[in-house]
User: What shape does this take?
Amino acid sequence: MAPRAVRVGSARFRMDDLLQTTINGIASGSIYALGAIGLSLVYAILKLVNFAHGDFMTLGGYVAFAVNVSLGMPLVVAIAAAVVAVAVLGLVTEELIWRPMRKRGAGLMQMLLLSIGLAFVLRNLILLTWTGESRKLNVDDTASYGIGIGRVSLLQILVIGIAAAALVGVGLLLTRTYVGKSMRALSDSFDLAEVSGIDTKRVVTYTWILGGGLAGLAGVLAAVFTTLTPNMGWTLLLGIFAAIILGGIGNPFGALVGGLALGLVQEWSTNFVEPTYKEAIGFAVLILALLFRPNGLLGHATRTG
Amino acid sequence: MTKRRRLMALLSVAVAIGAGAAACGGDDDKSSSSGKVGELKVGVLVPLTGDLAPFGGPNAKAAQLGADAVNEAAKKAGVDINVKLVTEDTKTDPQGSQEAATKLVESDKVNVIAGPMASSETIPTAENVTVDAGVPLISPSATAPDVTNIEDDGLVFRTAPSDALQGKVLAQVLGDKIGKDATVNIGGRNDAYGNALLEQFTQAWEAGGGKVGVKVTYNPEASSLDSEANKLAGGNPAAWVVVDFPESWQKMGPALLRTGKWDPAKTWTVDGLRSPDLPKKSGVKVTEGMNGTVPTSLDAPAGKAFDALWKEKVKTDRQTYDAQEFDAVVLYSLAAVKAGSNNGADIAKALTDVSAPGGTKYTFEQLPEALKAVAAGEDIDYEGASGPIDFDANGDPASASYGTWQYKGGKLVDSTAVFPVKGAG
Assistant: This one.
C-alpha cells in the first residue's frame, strides 16, 4: 500500500483537491459531531452507552421523510417534527426502560446490551413501516455553487449551516444556563450533584430532550446528506463512537472536535489513497491518536492509583 | 439408570422411525425410469431490500412465472412434477444471502436454489453453504468472472454470461462511439462485480489503444461520496465508465452532478444500472443520456415469447435478468425430470445435458412436449427465454448476446442492435 500511496499522492496532490476535500470533510464531520454530542451527553450523565442512538437518528430521518415527502410540508417543519419525535422517544425509553433498569441496579453492561436490543427493535419497526427502499428528502441534491477554486453543494451548505447553529446553541446551553451547568455537574459526579441540591430527575429529563433532539436533527441532516435507509444510523454509529473516543469520552466539546477531525481525515485521505479505504484510514488515525493521547484530544489525564 | 434406559429406548424408536421414513423416501426416488419427480422445492434467493432492491421483486415474479409454466405444462403432459417455490430476501448482502441460503437448505429443505443475484452474494453463498450441502445453485445474474472458478463439485451454474464478455463488448461499443484511442475515467463500487468489470473493461480498452485517466473504486456503504465523485469527474476525459447498483447510484449520481464537471450523456455503464425506475428514483438529471450495455434476450430463441408472457401475466415493466431467472426454474424442472428425481446432486448432473446442444430443441412455448420427451428418455436442448444458454463445463452459458440502452427523457430505451459474443468461460 504505502509506496503506491506516496506515488499517487505526489503525482496528483493539488491545492483545489485539498480545499474540496476540506469542504467535504467538514460536511460529513458535522454529521458525526451532531450525532456524537447527543450520544456523549447521554453517556456522561446517565452512564449509558446507547447503541440505539444510530437508530434514533434513523427514526428522525424517517419522521422528516413522512412530514417532508409524504405530507409535502417544508423542510423546516420536517426538522422540527423529527427533533420533537426523537426527544419524545428518548423520554419514553427513559420512563419505560432506563429508569426502571437503573432502579434495579443494572450495570453498564446490562444497559449496553439492552440498548443493542432496542436498536434492533427500532430498525425492524422502521423496516416494517417504511420498507427497505432507499428514500430521499425533498431537497435539490444536484445544486452546487463554485467558490473560488472549490465547489460547495446546497446539501453541504444546509448540513454545515444547521449543524453549526445547533452546535453553538448547545455550547451556549451547556456553559451559560443553569440546566446546562447542572448537566455538566451531573456528568462530573452524579452523587455530588445530587447532594448539592440539584434536581437530578429534572436534569435527566432535559438530557434526554437534548440528546434525543440532537439525534433527531443529526438523522434529518444525514438523510439530507446521504440516502435514507433503515441501516443509515447503524452504519454511521461506528464513526460516531470513534468521534467520541477521539475527542475524549464524556466530553461534549471533545465529541465536536472528534467528529470534525474524523470527517476531515477521511476525506483528506482520498487525496492520497484509494477512496474505498477512507473509513479504514479514519480508524487508523483514531488508533494513532489514542497512542499519543490515550484520553482523547480534549480528555484530561486521569489519576491512577 | 432406568431413566437412562428409557431414554435409550425412546432414541432407538426414533431412529427406527427415521430409518423407515428414509427408506420410504428411497422408494420414491427409485421410480426414475418413468421421469417421476414429485415435488421439486426451489429456493429463490432475491434481493428484496438493499442496493439491488429494484431487481428483487421482478425476479421473484419471474421465478413464479417459471414455476407456473412448468406446473401447467406438467399437467398437460401427464408428467409427475410439481414445482414449489420458497422465496427469501438476501438484503443484497453477502452475510444476508448466506443466512437466507442456510435457512432454505436446513429448515425448508429445498432441493435446488435459484439466485442469489449479486456476484458478491453468490460466491460466499456457494462456497460456504450450498456446495457443502450438495444443493445446486443457478444465479440469474452473478456476472463476475470469479464465479467460473468456484470449487463447486459441478453444483454452481449461471444463466447470465460472465463479465469477461461484457467488458469486451462495452469497450467495443464505446470505441465505436468516441474513438478507440480516447481517454476515459472509470469508477465503480468496490466489490466482486465492480472490480471485475472495471478490470475486464480496462484490459479490452487498453488492448484497443485506449487510455484510462482516473480510476476510482468506492465503498458503496460510505455515507458521502463527494470526494470520490470529485476525483472521478476530474481531468476532462472523453467519457466516463461507471459500474454501480441502483440504490448506491442515488448517492454517487447526484454527487457526480454536483461537481459541475460530469456529464451523464458522456457516461457509459453496464447491466447493474439498467432499471426502468432509476430516472425517477435518482432524479432525471442524474441519468439523462446515460448509455449502457446489457446481456440481451432480443435474439434469444424464446425472447419475444417471454416478453409477451410477461406483459400478459405480470403487466409491469420488464426488469434486467428476469428471463434468466425464469430459465433457471425451467431448467431445474427439465433436469429433475431427466434425472427422475428431486435429489439436488442428480439434478445438477442432468443440467448440462438438457441445456447443451445435441437433441431436439425446445423453448418454453413447447414445454409440455419438452417434458414428455425428457420423461421418455430423449435428449433435448432447452432454448431459453434469455438466450440459448448451453451450459459449458464450468456451468456458464457458452455464448451470449449483448444489447445497448439509454435513458432518454427519463425513460429507459433499449436499442435494437445486438452484439453476439462466443466463447465464454
